[in-house]
Amino acid sequence: MLFRILKNSFLKRPKAVLLIFLSITMGAAVATAFLGISGEISHKMALELRSYGANILLEPSAVEGGFLREEDLPKIKTVFWKYNITGFTPYLFSIAEFSAGGKKERGVVSGTWFAKQLEVPGEDSSIQGIKGIAPWWEVQGRWPEDAAEAIIGAALAKRLNVVAGGDVTTIVRGRSQQFRIVGVVTTGGYEEEQLFAPLVTVQSLLQLPGKVSRVLVSALTVPMDDFGKKDPATMSKDEYEKWYCTAYVTSVAKNVEEVMAGSRAKPIWQIASAEGALLKKLNSVMLLLTVLALGASATAVSTSLMASMAERSPEIALMKAVGADRFQISAIFVGETLLISMAGGVVGYLLGDQLAEVISRTVFSSTIVSPLWLFPTAIISALSVAIAGSVVPLRRALLIEPVRVLKG
After folding, report:
1. Are residues 142 and 95 both part of a single domain?
2. In which domain, by residue range, is 93 found?
3. For a designed S-S bond to 216, which of 54, 103, 271, 377 qualifies (C-beta 3.0 to 4.6 A apart)?
4. Does 272 map to a domain?
């Protein structure tokens, strides 16, 4: 009997059913799309934020005068979180005197990698250096390709009155090295007071073969929470395992520190904190948009059902007059809504999956893989919208007085 009533209801009111179906479908589709790309957006945004610069600083743990060993650097790509490390570059620096065209100025000479092919046993080769971890550097000219070539900071270049193509002599502790300037770098920071040359050349100039002053590491991390900020020394064994296996900036730094002999790794909190705060806000925005979409869908469903209930007032009054109780009437209208919501949930999931793919391709130029939990989430979202939207209309339907309605 209930099935026959539901069937007749759908056939007699196709427009109302279609409107409710579309409302639920759109809500489920938007919720599926937003939730589907929320995880991917966090990952993609974390990759984009890596252009802000490195978020881990690796220094010698020894007292003043200590150095790191260049030969240990490939080990950074063998740590537990090796796939989260997007790049790193070493530095060896010293105060130097520069001369060009009769002018002399003091500044900093920094030896580094620009784009070094790094071979790690058992791992794929990768390109490491400044070009990878500092893509925001603006270089007028080109990057050094030879041991005697260098790039110079814009401020230092201005004081020396040197441009790309000129020569600069660098003097450190009585030893000198002439560099051909192939580019002028603008960063808006302290780098503009430095001259950057190949690491091996500066090591030779300073007579420090194989030595490194510091290493900047760029890694994908998750936002810090209260647990991530705890001191590992105060954690229990289970807590430490959880912390170590979560990609906090502190745990990734600990990973790196363990493989670099005589090192001390610490987060660059100015960058790490800003990234974490931005990712948290982004996730909050996605959740808010999902809730608003479902709320709008529930409102549309409620409006449609209110209009439908008004049209069906005589039908409801007649059912009450022949003895139908509140449960039987509720079963009919809730059954109709739930059947429509199930169909809307399935269609909404399919549409939302395609919408997420379009957004990912448009914004990030990449594809995404929808997680398995999205399908039940879409169905639950559709059911939630249907139930929330039918509460007020159903309550009004149950308050209808047969005598008043049937007498007209």
Report:
1. yes
2. 55-267
3. 54
4. no
Residues of the chain by 3-state class (helix, strand, coil), percent to 5: 55, 20, 25
Q: Is residue 401 part of a domain?
A: yes
Q: Each residue's pLDDT tens digit in the chain (408 positions)? A: 445 555 555 556 667 777 778 888 888 888 888 777 776 666 666 656 656 678 889 999 865 458 899 999 999 988 888 888 888 999 999 999 999 888 899 999 999 999 888 887 777 778 889 988 888 889 999 999 999 999 999 999 999 999 988 999 999 988 999 999 999 999 888 889 999 999 999 999 999 999 999 999 988 887 777 788 888 888 888 888 998 888 888 899 999 998 888 888 888 877 666 666 776 777 778 788 888 888 888 888 888 777 777 777 777 777 777 777 777 777 777 777 778 888 888 888 888 888 877 877 776 666 666 677 778 888 888 888 888 888 887 787 777 777 676 666
Closest by CA position to 17, among listed 313, 335, 331:
335
Nearest 5 degrees, angle CA 49-CA 50-CA 52?
75
Q: Work out whether the CA dihedral 332, 334, 337, 339 comes out positive or negative.
A: negative
Chain Cα centroid distance, residue 72: 30
pTM: 0.66
Please say whether the beta carbons of 85 and 50 come within 8 A.
no
| 185 and 107 inside one domain | yes
CB 310 within 8 A of CB 396: no
Identify the burial level of 56 via C-beta atoms within 10 angstroms of its C-beta, where 0-12 means exposed, 13-18 middle and 19 or more buried. buried
Give the distance between the most distant pair of CA atoms in the chain. 111
Query: Is residue 400, in this structure, part of any structural domain at all?
Result: yes
CA dist 248 → 52, 56, 190, 251 (Å): 18, 11, 28, 5
Do 29 and 116 belong together in one domain?
Answer: no
Task: Indicate if the alpha-carbon torsion angle 146, 111, 205, 126 is positive or negative.
Answer: negative
395 part of a folded domain: yes
First to last CA, the chain: 28
Regarding whether 28 and 123 lie in a shared domain, the answer is no
